[in-house]
Specification:
Layout lengths: L1 H13 L7 H20 L2 H19 L3 H15 L3 H5 L1 H10 E5 L6 E5 L4 E5 L6 E5 L1
Antiparallel strand pairs: 1-2, 3-4
The protein binds zinc ion.
The site of zinc ion has 8 residues, from loops.
Length: about 140
């Protein structure tokens, strides 16, 4: 009962706000690593940096300027490239990586996934219809 209440309030607060995205997740991970490292180093500067990063994450998730936050996250996701699913949902990315192999189309660069364990297969790119051989 109390937990549902809390979730409802959180959902209400998040409405129309940015919430968590890849950039937010990565920045808070960096902050967490800094906090852990700082247990040993006990540096004032590192704790200030970690606090600023945590503050930035909160500010981004609370922001109502969705367009600007989406643009920032888009640039960041481009930078992440194939690492992106591992940031967004590591559990799902892990089962995906176990079940499929990913290839890049030699013609257009489109990412193609093939079920693992099928041996040598001929892959047809869904975007440009180029065919290429791959070992799954
Ligand atoms: Zn292609």
């Amino acid at each position: 009962m109390a937990k549902q209440d809390w979730q409802k309030k959180a959902a209400e607060w998040l409405r129309g706000r940015n919430g968590s995205d890849e950039l937010g997740i990565c920045v808070s991970l960096v902050a967490l690593i800094l906090v852990i490292v700082n247990i040993f180093l006990n540096s004032f500067i590192i704790s200030v940096i970690a606090l600023v990063l945590i503050g930035y994450t909160f500010w981004r998730s609370a922001s109502r300027n969705l367009e600007a936050r989406e643009n920032e996250n888009g640039v960041f996701c481009e930078f992440l490239g194939p690492v992106r699913p591992w940031v967004r949902n590591p559990v799902q990315a892990f089962s995906e990586a176990r079940a499929y192999r990913h290839f890049k189309c030699p013609e257009c660069g489109q990412r193609v996934r093939v079920p693992r364990g099928k041996g040598k297969v001929r892959v047809r790119c869904p975007k440009c219809s180029t065919k290429f051989d791959a070992r799954s």
